[in-house]
Amino acid sequence: MDSHYDIAIIGLGCAGSHVLLELLSRTETRDLNIVVLDDFSRESMHKTWSYWERGAGKWDTLVSNTWQYAYFKNTDVDKKIDLKGYTYKSIDSPDFINHALEKATAFENVTFIKKPVLNCTVHDTFVTINYALGSCTASLVLDSRIDPDFFKKEDSITLDQHFKGWVIQSEQPVFETNAIVMMDYRLRDPGTTSFMYVLPHNAHTALVEFTYFSKKQVADSVYDDYMNQYIKDYLSIDSFKILHTEQGSIPMTAHDFAIYNKPLIHKIGTAGGWVKPSTGYSFKSSESKAAQLVSNYIAGRNLNQNLFSKKFRFYDAIMLDVLAEDNERGAAVFQNLYTKQPIENIFAFLDEETSFKQEIAIMLPLTSWPFIKFFFKRFSQLFKK
Fold first, then answer.
1. C-alpha–C-alpha distance, residues 29 and 21, integer Å
2. Which CATH class is domain 159-252?
């Protein structure tokens, strides 16, 4: 056994970095002995983390690009949306993780173990963490690894957000630098909720990504074929370089991740249900949940207290049910959402900051028989628990 720590963080991705930075920012937790365990082999895991917020933000020095407008496109819609005081921002994942690493190096009480974790054993008052060629103990483990049992439950994942993107460079200036393409449904895989997402870096360079909200994964060649077609037919680019590729899969689920918490081991990030179920966005959600988790720890409360809104999980579950039953419906659902409501109301709704009156106004245009059916199905389930 190498050492004992107050808190162990397994995995320094989005959630782990937020939690570490939050712990180091609070006077009550700044002097805790903390260990971070991660093999840090992230070259193949480069991601673009995007989010929206009003005005200046906490991470602006790390932001790689910002935009003031967004497009929603479908076969009969081409809407340019003024973000109305919001700014859409992107951070490259290595920049944020390195920021957390650099901050932590100033604290002698933070230790990094660059090894993959093999397993954890819970004892009465501590956890033994076994990793390659060593072990340590901790009074609390914050674990970002998804529990294998999650994938064994048939009803755990409603949909997957799976995607592949290229950062491409064109010889000609073709990209509108102040506007993202939030969703472009003009080119999609028939029978699925699938769309293009475009983040311009400058007039010549952009991330072009093909995304699915669906139950089934697809071969790499499927993403490639759609991206090539979109770049040629919709962006009118004949020649381009691929500068970088990113790819991933995020479970979209309203599943109760609390069942995977154990005494002294608490799941965080995707493993803890920190991803917004109906959108797949996680950066700002992880920031707020990390802050709440640390506040709970300081106050001696259950670490899950106030982390989740039952009301918004209810809304998320209905949306996922509808898209799962008829995956083709996604284009119409999101078209109604983005074309019939002010963008500031949509962002507030997705950030779970709206009143019930505002939520009814947003949900009414989406109302259809599938929404009504799943509303009452989910509502009845509340009384069975």
1. 11
2. alpha beta
